[in-house]
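Supplementary Note 3. Input sequence used for the single-chain structure prediction.
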Amino acid sequence: MEHFFVLPVPWAHCDMAWRKKLGPNELAEVDAGTPLHLVAPVGAEIELSGHRMGVQPEGLPYDLDNARCRRLTASIGTRPEDDQIEVTRDGIPAGSICIRGHQPRPGWTARWEGGAPHDLWAERLDHFLLRLIDLIRIADDPKLQHHQGGWERLSAAWSDERPDPSEPPIALIVRHAVSMRALVADLAGHPRHILRRTRDMTPVDRVQQIDISCIRWLSRQPGTTWYERAGPRQRIMAVQRYENRDTLENRILRDFCHRSSGIAAAYAKRYEGYSKSKRRALVERYGRECRRYALDLEKRGVSTPHPPLIPNYVLLQDPRYRKLWAAYIELLRRLDEEDECWRWQHRLWSDFCRLALHVALRRSAGRDGTVAESPLRLLPEQQRGQWSVVDAQSAVFLLETGAAGKIVVSLLWDTAAGHPKLPPGLAGLGATSVLHAQSLATGKEAYVLMWPVHFVVSDGWGIAQLVESAHRANNDCGAYLRMVKSLDLAVGGLILKSGVTPDDEEAAHLPEGAPRIAGLRLTTSPEHMTVELERVSRASLALIKGLLRG
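The predicted structure, written as discrete structure tokens, is reproduced below.
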């Protein structure tokens, strides 16, 4: 258990002031800042209690403090009770973790069904994560298909020259507002109904149909004629027909409208800055209509569906309801993906930062300076918060640095596959991306580690505090590599902190002279992406030049 730690930030294994030791009968209290990072010996089976989705291995195994270790990340719980975690190692209790200030996900149905309590920060965080998904998926916009390659499409989508710069990104609710609006209006206006037959006491003059059961009942009544057998109230048992709209297909319709109205309202709110957008206005109008349809169906006696949802003949064979069923499944799948992205929001932020770093460098290099690129593939569904698939080395750029001459920069991913240019000793610092730079004039090499840092709470650490800790970890790791591995590497780091609220400005931390560690705060507004990427590019080049000079 001596090498089993909880880390508040990825590099904290090399910063003893910030890591928390885990052991049997021990309680490690941590603030709900960044998601949990764990360090455990290679081969150990780690399990967490509660509704979390297990642990995810990150990066390569590494040697530190005379032990072979592996860094893991834990998912964020979506419920209030997930603030207390019991940890087991190889089936044996290995301690507890208490998360102070744990932030559960606000239920999207909170306004109507009494979900999670309303919390302004949680709502802003939820909108921030959904904007990240939209930004990553924006490369699938049909208007960008004339650009060759995924990187070219993503770069165009994140530029001022993107199609429809006055419009927010396309999301599933936008496509539904275009393709489903007329169909939903038609189905809600004339919902399918069936006639149900029941037996009930009916006035004789209103009897339309009787069956064998009604005749048996009538034969048991005293009297010789119909009117005598009907008694003083002149009622007999007869078959009555009632229109019933509470069918499975209409329940699906009501739930689809109910969910769509909430998702449309969330889309309009997170892109409220696009006040003149036709796309946003369309989604907002579609959401209001769906809200009205759901209330109308409720008044007509249509209930909500209950799992398990097994489609009936109408949902599978009727063309209109078949289209509704397909859209409903899309909606449920997307809501499940959003829950999954809340659990793995730190990996979602890492995914975005990796893509942003690549796009920023390819813009600095230009078409002539882009020596090679591996293809960018976007997944149809996220995998534990990540949407993109990139090779271990995504690109090689040739950059001009003025007096320092030309340098070759290779962009590496710190994946389990590894890369020959990635020294294994750097894995202990927990970077998700590494820039390997080499001067063509002197042959000197340098490494810039990229650390995405995302805070779940509003009062997370400031950039200056993060830079100070990363500087200590970088120095301690460098001393260990020189003493044990006989490696003398020029290593720096770039911290990219998530900017959940655009109005909360925080100054970048870019030390003067030859900085080794820098920190930036990034926002995710589509209209600011060009400026944000330029800041990432300038900070990366400043670090590279400083390391090569030193």
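The CA atoms of residues 105 and 126 lie 8 Å apart. The chain has 14 helices and 20 strands.
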